[in-house]
Amino acid sequence: MSAHGLPCWYELSARDPAVAKPFYTALLGWTWTSADMGTMIYHLSASEHGQVAGMMAADPGQPNAWAIYFAVDDCDAAAAQAIGLGAAQIVPPSDIPGTGRFAILIDPQGAAFALLQPLPGGTGGAFDMTKPGHGNWNELVTTDALTALAFYGALFGWTISSSVPMGPDMTYHLIARGGVDIGGAFNAATPPFWKPYFGVPSVAAAAAQIAGLGGQVMHGPDEVPGGAFTLQIADAEGIVLALTGPA
């Protein structure tokens, strides 16, 4: 089955990779290698199960944030379709030697996301809900979740598997791809963004580490349906992400 619409890579635009690396190494067990790309140094993280994410120093004026890449069968066609559906293009379809073809866009509500057309056999395992240290969930925080998910549904073939009331002012929409839940979306009064959740062996143990690593626990641990727990955090540079796993 095609990987079209599946999360396939995570990328951090950091202020200072030398600050970010030890945080993620201690928290998620990542090891790092670096590649000179000519215009920048690109840092690759890996868990014991394989590569997970990339990191680079952000250019001046570039947001410091996590980005999620979604696999597509044809990057040029998907980018053109996204623009036709109301997205804005930040980086046009471009080749990454040895990896594939990518593009960076902003959805109609304002959340940045990326496309990746991997080389044959190169879909990778960055997103794997069974493995700690890997992407386990993908969350869209936006101003109009239903309209946003209609956009992504047309682009990636996603569906809403269920919509769960989380209080008087919030409904959490579960995103499914091929009948399997891969993430969620909800409305919030913040600039829209995609947030990765990385798996950990113990959310409580991770929570106890965060402050000592220079990060901050923003909310949680919270139990979610199915018995897992989540933890909303900021890393050592104040960049927002989340963790999930057993208690």
Throw out a few tags for this protein.
4 helices; alpha+beta; 247 residues; eight-stranded mixed sheet; 16 strands; globular
What structural category do the secondary elements indicate?
alpha+beta
Output the number of helix runs. Answer: 4
Total count of strands: 16
Give the DSSP E fraction (strand runs of 2 or more residues).
over 45%
Low-confidence stretches: none
Distance between the termini: 34 Å
Share of residues in helices: 10-25%
* Biggest beta sheet attributes: 8 strands, mixed
- The H/E string reads EHEEEEHEEEEHEEEEHEEE
* Mass-distribution shape: globular
Arithmetic mean pLDDT: 95
The Cα radius of gyration reads: 17 Å
Strand order of the largest sheet: 2-3-4-1-5-8-7-6
Give an overview of the whole structure.
This protein has 247 residues and is α+β, with helices and mostly antiparallel strands. The chain is 17% helix and 48% strand. It has four helices and 16 strands. The strands form two sheets. The protein has an eight-stranded mixed sheet with strand order 2-3-4-1-5-8-7-6, with helices on one face. The chain starts with 6 loop residues before the first strand and ends with a strand. The model has no long low-confidence stretch (mean pLDDT 95).
